[in-house]
Amino acid sequence: MIFYFFWVFVICQRLFELVVARGNEKWMKDRGAIEFGQGHYPLIVMVHTLFFIVLFAEVFIFNHSLTPFWPVLLPIFILSQAGRLWALSSLGRFWNTKIIVMPHADVVKKGPYRLMRHPNYLIVTLEFIIIPLLFHAYYTALVFTILNFVILLIRIPAEEEALKQLTEYEEAFPRMKSDSGIGKI
Is the model's pLDDT at 17 over the cut of 80? Predict the structure, then answer.
């Protein structure tokens, strides 16, 4: 029973984020922002949607329950959600699920963005591991961690290229000028 409440909670959180992202997209595009990465975005949506379907199926079919390790995993999940809020609020109106860049906008370097370039991708990666492990959904954790890794191999370079084209991204992160790839999220 706890799984169903947890599952619905996380889905409602994601749906709320999509509403926020839609509003931010309109706000940004009304001010001249440009969208990049449209080709891979449906893949991201598909993987994130399938994550919840497969998670539900694995827990339901195998009648999984809450892991005995929940006292360790749940606080990590809660911290990841605090990190998600921190990352999203730091970006403010510039946060989106799509790659939308406002030409010549200041690059955000506050909050977790002082510490790393893509904190929300790290948080999503943690969620794809922690949420399934909370309910013994090991297949879901394995498959979607791999799929997320593949997506990030596409997504991060596309996002960084867009930021380099339209902002002073390289100047904002001078120590990372020559960095590339997934290992630098």
Answer: yes
pTM value is 0.90
Q: Can you read off the two tokens belonging to residue 184?
A: 């630098």
- SS3 category, 101: strand
Cα separation, 14 vs 124, in Å, equals: 11
Q: Which contiguous run of DSSP H or E holds residue 21? A: helix 2-30
Task: Kindly list the distances between the CA atom of residue 20 and the CA atoms of 69, 88, 102, in Å, as whole numbers in the listed order.
Answer: 33, 10, 17
- The token pair at 86 is 């921190």
Distances (CA, A) of 130 to 73, 105, 107, 124, 158: 6, 35, 30, 10, 27
Q: How confident is the model at residue 172 (pLDDT cuts 50, 70, 90)?
A: confident
Residue 101, both tokens: 């860049």
**Residue 48 vs residues 111, 128, 151: alpha-carbon distances, Å:** 25, 9, 11
Residue 171 has what pLDDT?
A: 86
In the numeric block, which tokens belong to residue 148?
Answer: 């997320």
Question: E strand or H helix at 46, and its extent?
Answer: helix 41-61
What share of residues in the chain are helix, strand, coil (percent, to 5)? Answer: 70, 5, 25
CA–CA separation, 98 and 159 (whole Å): 9
